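Appendix B. One record, verbatim.
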Amino acid sequence: DLSGPMLELPGSNDFLDAEGTDCRSYGGIDGLPEMKRFFGGILNCPTKNVIIGGNSSLSMMHDALLRAYIWGVPGYDAPWQEQGTIRFLCPSPGYDRHFKITELFGFELLPVEMAEYGPNMDQVEALASDQSVKGIWCVPRYSNPTGVTYNDEVIGRVAQMQAAPDFRILWDNAYAEHHLVDRPAPLGDILAMCITAGHPDRVLMFASTSKMSFAGGGVAAMAASEPNIADSRAKIGIRTIGPDKI
């Protein structure tokens, strides 16, 4: 109800984006430039590193794993489907819908203990050294249901650790702007830490407006390194002519 007045926006005569594109037509694989800047601020990355999707960040996570499963990831040609048993790290307790996606692909799920400031990194590092482990699910801020926010040590270790060259951090920042305090604890910059550690392509970041306004009319985004974005954009451009803009 608080978001109700938004239903009257933008009005029948306002249909051009900031670059003058008519939003009533097709196009814009990356999404509206204004929305890319909006999520760039939330995910702390340049606008060029953002792709806008529909109302569900979960669908963007699903599709990111699907692309890795079928075609592999940038810089590593072997698709996951051709590498035998694939394993995925699941900090627990965690989000059941994350786990359902990896179950759908037949991955072996490896539970990892959630500690006070994020997943138990001793467990994560030990398991990730196995080349069959291809990723980890992370909800870095106010992780449901424990409310944990990852500290810099945890983020730094997951960025730096030894893992398979096609290992991916699925960084679901679902509660990035959902603060219940005036001075929220800062969240470290995972993309910058991965770049510094020499693993710039390791993280895929996600967020959405689903818990900000209308879940049924929200906007989702994925952000990552330029090679990840270029690879994703090329394949998304075959799948769709563009996300919702109106």
